[in-house]
């Protein structure tokens, strides 16, 4: 996951991934045409993306064709998703807050709150 995060930290590499997402298969030359940096620089970015597993390449004649392999992003996406939802005590406190609001609403409406029967000896 660290290698993937390091690979997508660069804006040129993120743009390459976007281009491959949109066009599916592009040669190194086609990709280099879309940047104002040198073709060797684009090739170095492609090598980083290939080594991180985010792109696959295929030799077709004299051209190397690149395509996106987004499966490498899945662990990073799952890790990031953990920051979007409450975890641990925060989740439990949210459930308690919901229960308090429900009990207050029922009390204002004149309905008795449901309480589980106690079975004591």
What does this structure look like?
- The structure is a single chain.
- The chain is of the alpha+beta class.
- It has a domain at 1-74: Winged helix-like DNA-binding domain superfamily/Winged helix DNA-binding domain (Arc Repressor Mutant, subunit A).
- Helix content is 54%, strand content 12%.
- The chain has helices at 2-7, 11-23, 28-32, 39-51, 74-81, 89-108; strands at 25-27, 55-60, 63-68.
- The chain has a three-stranded antiparallel sheet with strand order 1-3-2.
- A hairpin with a 2-residue loop joins strand 2 and strand 3 (63-68).
- It is rod-shaped, with a radius of gyration of 26 Å.
- The termini are far apart.
- Residues 1-88 form the HTH arsR-type domain.
Low-pLDDT runs of 5+ residues are: none
- The class by helix and strand makeup works out as alpha+beta
Radius of gyration: 26 Å
Please give the CATH class of the domain at 1-74. Mainly Alpha
H/E series: HHEHHEEHH
SS strand fraction: 5-15%
Total helical segments: 6
Largest sheet: 3 strands, antiparallel
- Give the beta-strand count: 3
CATH T-level fold name of the domain at 1-74:
Arc Repressor Mutant, subunit A
How far apart are the termini?
Answer: 57 Å
InterPro entries: ArsR-like_HTH, HTH_ArsR_DNA-bd_dom, HTH_MetalResp_TranReg, WH-like_DNA-bd_sf, WH_DNA-bd_sf
Organism: Saccharothrix syringae (Nocardiopsis syringae)
GO molecular function, one term: DNA binding
Keywords: DNA-binding, Transcription, Transcription regulation
